[in-house]
Amino acid sequence: MQSVSSARFVTPVLTQRKRELLNELLGQFAQSVNFCIQKCLEHKLTSRASLHHAAYGEWKSRIDLATHWFHSAGRVATQTLRSWRKLCRQGQADPNRPPVYEARTMRLELWGDKNSTGICRFKGDTIQIRVRKGEYLWLPLIVTEHHERMYLSDWREGKTNVGEVTISTFKDRANDYVPFKREIEPKRVEGVCGIDINERSVDLCILKPDEQPKHIKLDTSKLAAIAHSMELKQKSIQEKLDAPPQRPVQKRRLKAKYSRRRRNRTSQILHVVSKQIAEILVVEKVEPVFEDLMDIRQSMRSKRKSENGQALRKDMRRRLDQWPFRKLQFYVGYKTLQRERETHYLPREQVRGTSSTCPMCGRKNRPNGHVFSCKACGFVGDRHFVGAYNTAVRWWTKDVGSDVPPEWRQMQPPAEVAVPPAKLEVEAQKIPVQAGVQFDTEF
């Protein structure tokens, strides 16, 4: 397996000549990508090799750049079309409106001994871009102690390799995103950890042979509080600035400001929680298993029936639509991969009923809030713990191919009444933990 970690480098203030040349390259790269997209659609091409044979001559007559720029633009164009066709098959894109590349960024292939078709060379403290024959653009980088410790030291020792470099501009500087790739050999694990992601908590169920299940609950109630407070802020801005005299420029600027603030605060909490999860997995020597929640937002946008037979409320659909579950799964995935653990996803056909199936007898029950109570065997426990347990068990029986150890059926959690979800206007309360350790996201 391969672990990829991207580092952001910033250049010093560029000279006027370098800024003009860089802006010109960004514009020509976007023009090249759109040209490749058009040719792929005209000739029904899907590969970069066929695109080169069909359109390289015309591209070279239009744009005065080195030949290798066509290779990078063709790669971006074919990948963009692949994603667009997939969205069309899923009904999320219009087949009559092909994609248009409008980003002010360029992704350049690495130029080195093993790849002579690249146009970008990373030298540690500078980036060399081949513009034309005998003409190069040099971008110096500001290298910090963090860059040296986390990325460059391993790169110089040959432990990591550099991938395609992404370059963009802001003000008088340039952003350079450099991916560092490392080959990872997964370590041997002793069990599996089912992870159930909810609005206010992340529940972990650690299962090992010859041991009873262990439940760990991570509090993420701050995410709901941030979402609610920022929603009120956005509503207040809209009401005040829509009233006469209207101020659309100020409204757009303030809404962008608070949207950025919400995104940054949410990402910070998710990074803290995902790091805690990764450290728990290393200590317990287990690998994580998530439910594959693909297309959950599409189902929330429709008036899908809830478990009690009534349509979901509009505010509920909006909250679930803004639920950052996939970002947390992504953070946990790459952090555990860096620690030599592999992340698994339970197939979609096995996801249904993880929170409503009794872990003791296997009977389906209708959940009542955060409490799971089985009418057949009398088991009472935390509903989120039940979801994490069933996720881990279903992956175990699918991957290992063996029955569940008897120790996993000997759970005796205390029959507690879970605290109902707190209102968003007040500080969120924590749900009692059935077993294990309580973690908070205070920082």
What layout of secondary structure does this protein have?
Layout: E1 2-10, H1 16-43, H2 48-62, H3 68-89, E2 105-108, E3 120-122, E4 126-132, E5 135-140, H4 145-156, E6 161-162, E7 165-170, E8 173-183, E9 191-197, E10 201-207, E11 214-219, H5 221-242, H6 248-284, E12 286-291, H7 296-301, H8 314-321, H9 325-338, E13 344-346, E14 371-373, E15 380-382, H10 383-399, E16 438-439
Parallel strand pairs: 9-12, 11-16, 12-13
Antiparallel strand pairs: 1-8, 2-7, 3-4, 4-5, 6-8, 7-8, 9-10, 10-11, 14-15
What does this structure look like?
- By secondary structure, the protein is an alpha+beta fold.
- 41% of the residues lie in helices and 19% in strands.
- It has two domains: 182 residues, no CATH class; 249 residues.
- A six-stranded mixed beta sheet has the order 13-12-9-10-11-16, with helices on both faces.
- Strand 9 and strand 10 form a beta hairpin.
- Helix 1 packs across helix 3, helix 2 crosses helix 3 and helix 5 runs antiparallel to helix 6.
- The longest helix has 37 residues.
- It is globular and about 75 Å long.
CA-atom Rg in angstroms: 26 Å
Principal-axes geometry comes out as globular
By DSSP (H or I, 4+ residues per run), the number of helices equals: 10
Biggest sheet descriptor: 6 strands, mixed
Spell the H/E element sequence: EHHHEEEEHEEEEEEHHEHHHEEEHE
Distance between the termini: 33 Å
Mean pLDDT: 82
- Unreliable stretches, pLDDT < 50, 5 or more residues? 303-309, 412-443
Strand order of the largest sheet: 13-12-9-10-11-16
**Domain module tally:** 2
